[in-house]
């Protein structure tokens, strides 16, 4: 099993007392403010774009760095990568962004050697000589090559999914804290895909209505900026396009679809559930 992300309480440090801020939030006590998850989310709000996407990308990259730098020769790690037939497309290409100190070239060469050996062994002819071999051949023939090559999900996706789940729940919980909530309202907010996951995963959460209200306000503000950007392309317009208006289309890309590499393409998806990638990310 690959290393799980840190586990946090469902409602880390939320006070049960009556103290509330102007939006009705309870204040998080000091031990919770010392929690690394609180600060991880809080600090991520300073960056543009969806904070959950940013954390998932960071944690996935850290996981891959750990695998290539420390555990590429570890037998259980190698076996797990064989069973998953390596990494998914986005995580495979993410290896190029790892620092040279992680030796991604050598690390992936070792992984790829295993996978090519597995592919070669499973695609070659198998002579039928005796009942045991015939039974093995019939078992192989009854399943697709894809199913035999790839038995489990991309381990980096599994790691990313755990991180996503933990931090999305933590974000909902922390909307009950006045300080966090104020900063979140002034940030880019989460993307629509992660908002929909929050609705599907935590339909009864007491702060879901707050999140929905903030999400609508973010969408309205972005739509207004896009309106002005489009209007200023009219040949009769006299006002200059502002920097915020100029980047509104890329801001909209991230708001509507999430950061690049977090949600996979629908090209080869058999399921109609558009939110998830090809694995359980």
How would you describe the overall organization of this protein?
- It is a single chain.
- By secondary structure, this protein is an all-alpha fold.
- It has one domain.
- Helix 3 crosses helix 6, helix 11 runs antiparallel to helix 12 and helix 12 runs antiparallel to helix 14.
- The longest helix has 24 residues.
- The two termini are 15 Å apart.
- The N terminus and C terminus are likely disordered.
Residue runs with pLDDT of under 50 for 5 or more positions? 1-24, 28-34, 271-281
Distance between the termini: 15 Å
Work out the strand percent.
under 5%
What oligomeric state is this?
Answer: single chain
Report on the biggest sheet. none
Helix content: 55-70%
Average residue pLDDT = 80
What is the total number of structural domains?
1
How many E strands? 0
Shape: globular
Structural class: mainly alpha
How many whole angstroms does the radius of gyration measure?
23 Å
User: What is the succession of H and E elements?
Assistant: HHHHHHHHHHHHHH
Number of helices: 14
Features:
disordered C terminus; single chain; globular; 281 residues; mainly alpha
Quick synopsis:
The chain has 14 helices and no strands. By secondary structure, the protein is mostly helical.
List strands and helices in order, with pairings.
Blueprint: H1 30-33, H2 36-44, H3 51-70, H4 75-83, H5 89-94, H6 104-123, H7 131-141, H8 145-149, H9 155-174, H10 178-185, H11 192-201, H12 208-231, H13 243-246, H14 248-257
Helix pairs in contact: 3-6, 3-9, 11-12, 12-14
């Amino acid at each position: 099993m690959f290393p799980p992300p840190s586990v946090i309480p469902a409602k880390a440090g939320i006070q049960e007392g009556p103290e509330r801020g102007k939006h009705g939030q309870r204040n998080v006590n000091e031990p919770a403010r010392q929690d690394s998850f609180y600060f991880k989310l809080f600090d991520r709000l300073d960056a543009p774009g969806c904070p959950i996407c940013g954390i998932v990308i960071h944690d996935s990259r850290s996981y891959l760095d750990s695998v290539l730098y420390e555990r590429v020769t570890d037998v259980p790690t190698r076996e797990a990568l064989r069973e998953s037939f390596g990494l998914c497309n986005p995580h495979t290409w993410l290896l190029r962004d790892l620092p040279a100190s992680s030796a991604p070239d050598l690390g992936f060469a070792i992984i790829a050697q295993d996978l090519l050996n597995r592919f070669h062994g499973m695609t070659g002819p198998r002579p039928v000589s005796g009942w045991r071999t015939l039974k093995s051949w019939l078992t192989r023939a009854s399943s697709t090559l894809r199913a035999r090559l790839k038995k489990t999900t991309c381990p980096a996706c599994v790691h990313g999914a755990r991180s996503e789940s933990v931090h999305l729940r933590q974000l909902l919980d922390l909307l009950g804290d006045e300080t966090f909530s104020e900063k979140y309202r002034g940030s880019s907010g989460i993307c629509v895909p992660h908002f929909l996951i929050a609705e599907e995963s935590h339909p009864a959460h007491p702060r879901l209505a707050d999140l929905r209200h903030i999400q609508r306000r973010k969408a309205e503000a972005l739509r207004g900026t896009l309106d002005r950007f489009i209007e200023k392309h009219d040949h009769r317009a006299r006002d200059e396009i502002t920097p915020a208006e100029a980047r509104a289309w890329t801001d909209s890309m991230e708001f509507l679809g999430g950061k690049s590499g977090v949600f996979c393409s629908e090209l080869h998806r058999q399921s109609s559930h558009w939110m998830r990638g090809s694995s359980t990310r």
